[in-house]
Design brief:
The protein is mainly α. It has a domain of about 25 residues. Helix content is about 70%, strand content about 0%. It is built from two helices and no strands. Helix 1 crosses helix 2. The longest helix has about 35 residues.
Length: about 70
């Protein structure tokens, strides 16, 4: 029978493992590009940076926000 502290540890460990695997799943397509294509490291890095870019508004919707 499991003690409550051991159960808590296993529960936390399972939560952390799930989070790590979810993160690794995000990188799987980039790893495949890197392994398959020549120059894939640069292409995978460029695609990863492109997907993570934030959209910035160059011009505000109204000029009132400038004042």
């Amino acid at each position: 029978m499991l003690h409550s502290s051991e159960y808590s540890f296993r529960s936390r460990l399972k939560t952390y493992a799930t989070a790590i695997f979810a993160r690794l799943r995000e990188f799987a397509p980039y790893a495949a590009i890197e392994l398959v294509l020549p120059g894939g490291s640069l292409m995978a890095l460029a695609l990863w940076l492109y997907r993570r870019q934030r959209k910035v508004t160059v011009f505000p919707n109204s000029l009132d926000s400038l004042i």
